[in-house]
Amino acid sequence: MKMICAGGATGGHLYPALAVADKLRRRNPEIEILFIGAQKEVGSDIVKNAGYELMTIPARGFNRKNPFKNISVARDLLASSRQTAHILKTFQPDAVFGSGGYVCGPVIRAAHQQHIPTFLHEQNVIPGVANRLAEKYADTVFIAFEESRASFKNPDKIVVTGNPVRKQFLTAGVMHYRDRLGVNPRDMALLIFGGSLGATKINEVAADALIALKDKQDVTVFFITGRSGYAEIRGKLEAAGVTANPKVHVMEYTDRIHEYYSAADLIISRSGALTVSEIAVCGKASLLIPSPNVTGNHQYFNAKTLADKGAAVIMDEADLTAESLTDEIRKLAANKELLNRMGEAAAKQGRPDATDVIADAIQGALTHEA
């Protein structure tokens, strides 16, 4: 059995595809899985470190600000179509799985033309342009949120699955990470992060909020700044005496973030699709600050799926100040009953079976075609 996975290089696109690939590989150790990515994107290390072969094509997204640059983009898309057709004929996959990003279009279209079963997965509430365009070539479209259904044209293709999350998040709840990370049972544990590179506004405001809260003794803080902001934020907190408190942990990055999710009572973060799904699977209260720099404001709509159920508080970045964030943290820290209710509401939105549902459907196609 053979499968191709195609998707953008961001974690939001790659990790769901890797979760599905890993699940299928555990079920069928002999399966051959090839990833197709874009030449000018990063992410190859993530795929290769997971043990998969990666081939690239020159696909690029269209330039909305300067249409004249799209002449070369169109040329690269034509080249991508030719290269993809060659890859498919050479590799001969039994199924193709696309997880979003502009690399998906040429791959899903070429697979459809060669009568190979095709599957798409959309992580966000508001679907990306690539997946909306590729829908007509897909046999099945998996969506993470029920709210996405209205954005697609063919309801017969839609299956609501949730987002596949890494298996560490599914098992984190049974591990005693609060003990392992040294969290006092009486403390509120707070996890703050903005992504692997960090989020400048969140970092700056959160640092000021921690300075305002430095005398509060019943809060344990895990602050993951991201690589780009670590030195500045660490220096600022050190100068203010915040890091002298052994309960305040400032980190540049961690590859064990599931441990901090598990230990946390409250998560403060952006609201990318995977983050929202991970929060739900872990059953955690959250204070979500959607990025204003994404197409279609899709992070707001992701966050709204939790906020509408009483599982999260949304703060608009335009209104985010040290004072407003400090007030929200104080309010939630003082009401553990509310935090518990928010966590329970989040857990009800979680889809821990997402990877299995998608893998089952793809495996059916693989078994049929093999």
Q: What topology, given as strand order, has the largest sheet?
A: 3-2-1-4-5-6-7
Helix/strand order: EHEHEHEHEHEEHHEHEHEHEHEHEHHH
State the helical fraction.
40-55%
Number of discrete helical segments: 15
- Principal-axes shape call: globular
CATH topology of the largest domain: Rossmann fold
Overall average residue pLDDT: 91
- Rg computed from alpha carbons, rounded to a whole number of angstroms: 21 Å
Poorly predicted spans = none
Structural class: alpha/beta
The end-to-end span amounts to 6 Å
Beta-strand proportion = 15-25%
The name of the CATH architecture of the largest domain is: 3-Layer(aba) Sandwich
Largest sheet geometry: 7 strands, parallel
CATH homologous superfamily label of the largest domain: Glycogen Phosphorylase B
Q: Domains counted in the coordinates: how many?
A: 2
Quickly name the level 1 CATH class of the largest domain: Alpha Beta
Write a structural description.
The protein has 370 residues and is of the alpha/beta class. Helices cover 44% and strands 16% of the residues. A seven-stranded parallel β-sheet has the order 3-2-1-4-5-6-7, sandwiched between helices. A six-stranded parallel β-sheet has the order 10-9-8-11-12-13, sandwiched between helices. It has 15 helices and 13 strands. It has helices at residues 11-27, 44-49, 70-91, 104-113, 129-134, 167-171, 177-180, 200-212, 230-239, 257-263, 273-282, 298-307, 322-333, 336-349, 354-369, and strands at residues 2-6, 32-38, 53-57, 95-98, 118-122, 140-143, 158-160, 188-193, 219-224, 248-251, 266-269, 285-288, 312-314. The model has no long low-confidence stretch (mean pLDDT 91).
